[in-house]
Amino acid sequence: MMKAIIKKPIITEKATAASETMNRYTFEVNKAANKLEIKNAVEKMYGVKVTEVRTMVYGGGKSSVKYTNRGIVEQPSNPTKKAVVTVAEGETIDLFNNF
C-alpha cells in the first residue's frame, strides 16, 4: 500500500503570500505520487476544486560530508517533492485549523 500522498502543508512567507493572492497552496508530497493523485488527494481532503498542480523535486545531491577513519565520505541528501496546487476561484483552504 502506498503511503499518504500529502505529507504536510508548507507554510512559509512565500507560500502564504501565494495562497492569499493567487489561490495557490504548497504541500510536501510523497515522491512517488503523480499530479493526478495529488489533485485527487487535495480535493478529497479539503473539499475544493483543484485547477492546476505543479510539482518539483528538491535535494538528492551530494551534500553531507563525514570524516571517518576511511577518509572523507559524501552522503546524498534526502530528496523531497513539493506540489503547488491552484484551487478554483472563490475557494480557499484553511491550513491552520485542519491539522
What distance separates the N and C termini? 23 Å
**CATH architecture group name:** 2-Layer Sandwich
Neighbour order of strands in the largest sheet? 1-2-6-3
CATH homologous superfamily placement: RRM (RNA recognition motif) domain
Percentage beta strand: 35-45%
Overall geometry: elongated
Gyration radius, to the nearest Å? 17 Å
Give an overview in words.
By secondary structure, the protein is an alpha+beta fold. The chain has one domain: Alpha-Beta Plaits, CATH 3.30.70. Helix content is 22%, strand content 40%. It contains two helices and six strands; from the N terminus they run E-H-E-H-E-E-E-E. The strands form two sheets. Strands 1-2-6-3 form a four-stranded antiparallel sheet. Strands 4-5 form a two-stranded antiparallel ribbon.
How would the blueprint of this fold be written?
Elements: E1 6-9, H1 13-22, E2 24-29, H2 35-46, E3 50-58, E4 62-68, E5 71-76, E6 80-87
Antiparallel strand pairs: 1-2, 2-6, 3-6, 4-5
